User: Fold these one by one.
Assistant:
Number 1:
Amino acid sequence: MLSNPKVAIAMSVYMADNLTFLQLAVESLLKQTYKNIIIFIAIDGDIESEVRDYLNSLSKSEKVFLFSNEENKGLASRLNQLIDFITAENAFDFIARMDADDICVENRIAEQVNFFQTNPDIAVVGSDVIEIDEFGTQLFYKRMESNHSDIIFNLIKKCPFNHPTVMFRANIFEMGINRYKAELLNTQDYYLWVDLIYQNFKFANINTPLLYFRINDSFHQRRGLKKAKNDFKARIYAMKKLKMYSISNLVASYLLFALRVSPSFFKKLAYKYLRN
């Protein structure tokens, strides 16, 4: 068992990020009950001046490191940039994800570190979430499969993790292996999950909501034709790489594609009423 493991938290900020939401996200990290953490924030291209001023004020803290980038390259590239830096330091035991508009519960990091300490076979752990709207109103409790076998069984029908909740063992990224596919503008996390499963890394979710996941007006609009195509390709990639071809998995993939290309109002209804 590790003694007081050190945790790096990786976050990317870009033009569309809201200052108020960002402040709530960062504050939720700075208020964590687990204290041995460092927050790494990559600025992805041009951002609003008020957001930049806030981030610059954070850089005075020994708990926050900023990486300013003039060019907007997307989330995957910026996460890879942070992972490269964090693993080169060789000083961190775990790497946690966080988005700039979500809110962690105060014991999120402590719960995940404790889970790793008591489950040495697990390489990636996420959690349930409570979805909230732009005003912070609670919308839905999203429960995830908790054990590895159930996660694999449902892989084609359901993404294994709520991406902003995950924490990794840092050693899975050592020697420059296992990175997000930077050429993709979405579904990067799904491809990473498939690649890690292929390498026999084990997954788990904690069935406690450790994060408030924000759903705003653009959430369903972003899930259009390009997202639909990428989701479908990702499922085919998983079925091929993990030898998971089956009628039910193919049907699920086509149904997901149909849902993605449906009108926004229908996607909102399906998202609200057709989930378990």
Number 2:
Amino acid sequence: MSWRVVPAAELASRPEHLERWRRLHRDSAGSPLLAPEFVLPLLAVFGTGREVLAWRERDGGADVMAILAPSRLGAWNTFQPAQAPVGLWLQGDATPPELLPDLLRALPGAAFMLGVTQCDPMLMARPPDGDDVRTMDYIETARVTLPASFDDYWNTRGKNLRANLRKQRKRLQDDGVPTRLEASRAAHEMAAAVEDYGRLESAGWKAKDGTAVAAGNEQGRFYRAMLEAFAGMGAACVYRYFIGERLAAMDLCVEGGGCIVVLKTAYDEGIGNGLSPALLMREEATRDIVESRRFERIEFYGRVMEWHLRWTDEVRTMYHLNAYRWSWLGRLHARAARR
């Protein structure tokens, strides 16, 4: 077994590399966040050209693949744009401690440290700390394991949440204001979906700090290309929620590996009257997801917020992993961290 390292651009330009990634993705946990349809737009929009594709050859295939980027002299990290909820590390049944020393020796520039960032313990079990491999907590994130029926799920949620949304719906009904949930899944619908999402987000607080999605910025180009790619294989869903004729909230979602991942949520911050458009949408979208019987769970990723805990009790800790070429360097880094 040996490591190969090539420019990451070859993932798109060399069909054998893409097929190798696709095959390993299919044979592993299959997270949509590591599917080629997610990875290739990330590289195309946010890559700098310095990224590399690394894989460990085994029995004519690969049992580990990763997209890595230099962070400073002698140090590398998994390629980690803000739009990627997990680090771009894809593996079968291998375990990181046995892999990383040889990978460090294969990386260019006499690499002495490698960070595998934003690891999900569902995709890669957290290894114990050692002299040359150490982990640290990143964030807590949430998921919903789906029961057989929506009513079974909804009855486990807090009384305050259920009563609050019931009151909001009655107020809308009494005022004669209809609501509707729309789901877009076709590739030709994704450009308009991203434009709508951008208008919704750009009208809120994210516009003030420059992080809002817009159809013409890098984020907009990424989400359009990525959603179109997923929609082309029947694995994208954009939810729009209307209060009257007003677009009130949206979710951008991708599917695969038994789950649906809610990547982005935006809502109209100007809607008052005690209404919570994102929560109203979430209730109806969750019903739609459960009743489709296509998924085992909903994944939110991102840092756990108060509203997540109204929706689920399932929380897990994501982590970063650091690997060192020499054990003494790992021990030195650990002592510095403790200080």
